[in-house]
Design brief:
73% of the residues lie in helices and 0% in strands. The protein is built from 15 helices and no strands.
Length: 364
């Protein structure tokens, strides 16, 4: 990607920005919106469409995120020494994973236990741990909404160790991906980590091919057609989030983001794409706070019995929650990321060096 032009750089940030917004949407849907559906007295169809929209974008959301992360890590993996990159690409990410794991747990535990008195979700998640021992166990198993950081650190180390055997490594990652498709990897956290390694490798070693595929000439249309057929075949076997659907989602994501930048000023989304880390580590806390507050008040005051309220909730809550939680996350980051507060977003050892961007940790 060293020869990529201006639009190529723009689509990278656009795709990252879109993916982080889809992550916030996903957490909004599974923690607040989906549990509210059985209270609705109107607007059930648009509510179900939101749930379906979230579900059907799963082949894009994290695969594309990891593809871009691998793409941005290619030089660190293949060209730089361990001493040049280990602190930034491994120590920094593990530090943020552990630090924000603790911050999320203490924040969400206090919100659900002391402030509201109930949990938004019954999912197995380190943020809902009832004891320090359970928290540590779930964090080690990547059973946390921060699992992207856990995966990113591991992916980088493995990819750098075996980058000269990239084809064998890619084949191994593909086999592991299929193992998760058949539920052979226990636990949603380990399964998520295992499933997405292949997309990080696609970005790190084969991004040029996917970028070329995104230019829809006659040859590429034929290749895409073959991938569509293979994806549909997997879908027919019950494998919805299969590698072919995910690969197609990445390719069409590149096409779409490039087209957006060619036709519109996407500065706002590209800026979000350059600031994914702070949104990623902060948004879940505000989703829990907003979701628990709104849902508890709506149920307590029987607001869902009003058809107009139910309709407005069904149509607008996901958009409102994503916009508000993203904006608040960025605002809180801007207030905290000063002086000693920078240590919340960057490994202290790196604070002594010239800092390029605080989101570098999320770039792989």
């Amino acid at each position: 990607m060293a020869t990529a032009g201006k639009n190529e750089v723009l689509w990278i940030n656009t795709l990252k920005g879109g993916c982080i917004l889809l992550v916030v949407l996903h957490h909004t849907i599974i923690t607040t919106f989906a549990p509210s559906l059985h209270y609705l007295t109107a607007g059930l169809l648009p509510a179900q469409l939101w749930v379906a929209f979230n579900q059907y974008l799963s082949p894009l959301r994290m695969p594309a995120f990891f593809f871009v992360s691998g793409l941005l890590a290619v030089n660190a993996i293949s060209k730089k020494s361990w001493s040049e990159v280990f602190t930034k690409k491994f120590s920094n990410i593990i530090y943020l994973y552990l630090l924000w794991g603790v911050i999320q747990w203490t924040s969400i535990y206090n919100i659900s236990t002391h402030l509201i008195g109930q949990k938004l979700s019954s999912a197995t998640n380190a943020a809902y741990a009832d004891s320090p021992l359970e928290f540590v166990k779930l964090l080690v198993l990547s059973m946390t909404s921060l699992w992207y950081l856990y995966a990113l650190a591991g992916y980088f180390v493995v990819a750098k160790l075996f980058h000269r055997q990239k084809y064998a490594l890619f084949l191994a990652a593909l086999l592991v991906n299929y193992a998760t498709q058949f539920s052979l990897v226990p636990g949603w956290g380990p399964a998520s980590v295992a499933q997405n390694f292949i997309y990080f490798l696609l970005g790190a070693f084969f991004s040029h091919h996917l970028v070329q595929l995104s230019f829809m000439n006659r040859r590429n249309v034929l290749i895409v057609g073959v991938f569509i057929v293979l994806g549909l075949g997997h879908h027919a076997m019950g494998l919805y989030k299969n590698p072919f659907y995910c690969l197609l989602s990445i390719v069409f994501g590149i096409v779409f983001c490039r087209a957006l930048n060619n036709r519109f000023n996407m500065g706002w989304l590209n800026w979000i794409g350059r600031n994914t880390l702070q949104i990623y580590v902060l948004h879940r806390i505000f989703i829990e706070l907003l979701g628990l507050t709104l849902l508890t008040l709506a149920v307590s005051y029987h607001l869902f019995s009003n058809p107009l309220f139910s309709l407005v909730w069904a149509v607008s809550l996901p958009l409102v929650a994503v916009s508000l939680c993203t904006a608040v996350s960025l605002l809180v980051w801007s207030l905290l990321n000063r002086g000693p507060g920078r240590a919340l977003f960057l490994y202290p050892r790196l604070m002594k060096k010239p800092e390029k961007r605080p989101e570098a940790a999320s770039n792989g």
